[in-house]
User: What shape does this take?
Amino acid sequence: MSIRFNFGGDEHIFGEVSEEMSLTSFFTGLSMTNAVRTAGIRGVTEICPANASFQIRFNPDIVKPQDLLRELKSMEEAALKADPVLKTRIIELPVYFQDPWTRETCLRFRERHQDPSSTDLEYSARINGYATVEEFIAAYSGQPWFVSMVGFVAGLPFLYQMVERKKQIQAPKYLRPRTDTPKLTIGHGGCFAAIYSVRGAGGYQMYGITPAPIYDPTRKVRYLSDDMCLFKPGDIVKFKAIGRDDYDATLEEIEANRWQPTVRECTFSLKDFNSDIYGINAKLMELINGR
Amino acid sequence: MAVKVISPGLSTSVQDLGRPGHYHVGIPEGGGMDRFATRIANLLVGNDPGAAVLEATFMGPELEFTQSAVVAVTGGELPPKLNGEERPTWESFPVKAGDRLSFGFLKGGARAYLAVSGGIDVPVVLGSRSTYILGALGGHQGRTLKAGDELPLGEGSGKAGLSLPANLRRAGNSPAELRMLPGMYWHRITEAAGTRFFEETWKVAPEADRIGYRFRGGTPLEFVEREQPFGAGSDPSNIVDACYPYGSVQVPSGTEPIVLHRDAVSGGGYMMLGVVISADMDLIAQLQPHTPARFVPVTLEDALAARTEQRAALARAEGHLAG
Assistant: This one.
């Protein structure tokens, strides 16, 4: 495997680790962007990891594009060989699945969907081989997810579930994008979950909503006062399925600015994970449950 | 010590030279879409080139000043009127407390930049006063202006009567020529489709804003057949969601190219054919819907030479204004 490098105009270098998504590719990209950050190269202005690729923006008046490319290529071997061990954190996020707001939006844009006679959840459960929506939600919230990219709009995380490929949940995007998606919707497109940080257009299937703000440009939310975006690439997220009562209670706490998500520091080794996926996940989830 | 908004125009926002450094969490650089016009407007009124200005799209606002100042309008040809009397563009002129500044109809280009001596003094957020509308961040309350808004001004000392002659400004071609470095996912389309893409004349679609410019009128792209990679999605134009460079040319479903601009969405799942070079980003800012445009393939060396030429043009303009 080698990274496909490419100049994106005169200000960007794009590196594609692989065409397909995998945790290994994500980690290679993350190792590369971490190495670039550590190197502190003059003229580099943006360092952006993505799912299976990454992008470096630079000022060609300060660093020559070919020099930067050579420097990136010199980091490639180490990144591909690295046994990725990541110091990161696990964040628990409450999610009200089958909520009335995404359901209402889902019905409003039915004619743009592959299957106008089902809801997004019913459709996704069926095409992924789950007998009921409840079983689908149990799978969705039962195992943790990696934040493999933050972007599209401010603070929006793309999440890749930490399960083997045959258990990855996949769903197509809407046939035509909706013009509206409620803020904080949990959506799914391809093999990625996403949390809509702001209200707006969108094409992902909609499954539920979290009461917890994940982006606050005013920095008033207590846990977003330093970083206005909650998520960083490399974070691990566990969805906790909640019902209407818990949703309302959490929202009340958030409005009083008393609530914050449960966050625990952790270390993640890709090698250990690949040899015992569910054992590693169980340990991560124990951290959250405080046992 | 302020500017009052009597009517906001179509889409007017506070912008400066942007806030790089947060693209990895999806916050774009932003700032005036036409950087040359933003800088020159500021220099004409004695500001730092990166002071905050108003960017008005297609239609100007109507403003009332509560103090004396010097102002200048650059960018698209949107003629300013002081208390109903026309004033020149690309030239600084004085305003007094109680004066009203409005604009006539747009005669050319798409966006005008209004600088006021002292700059628009909204709070600095993440190192910039620019408005990121999609993220409700920065500028005046994170949004475009509304009637009744009051914008604070900084302390300034501009000089009236300073101007930039036409030969020191950049003129656009018709059809507009957007130079582009092919690459990224160029290999996804057939050779015939690639040739056609550059031969055909496209037109700016009505969906053209700070996020990106959509073009239509060309032949849909033919893709090289393949089995879609895991996680990419089923359409041949889909890729595993990746970062989008500023200026990148994505073609959802292979039909209408979209060139991302200063408020770009930072990533997504559509293949890109390449990236419009940095020297031509200002040109895009001045394209009106329905304007014909062509994409012109260039090499990295061409792109760097164009960038050097653009810096030289800016230096000539700055030199002229510095006297």
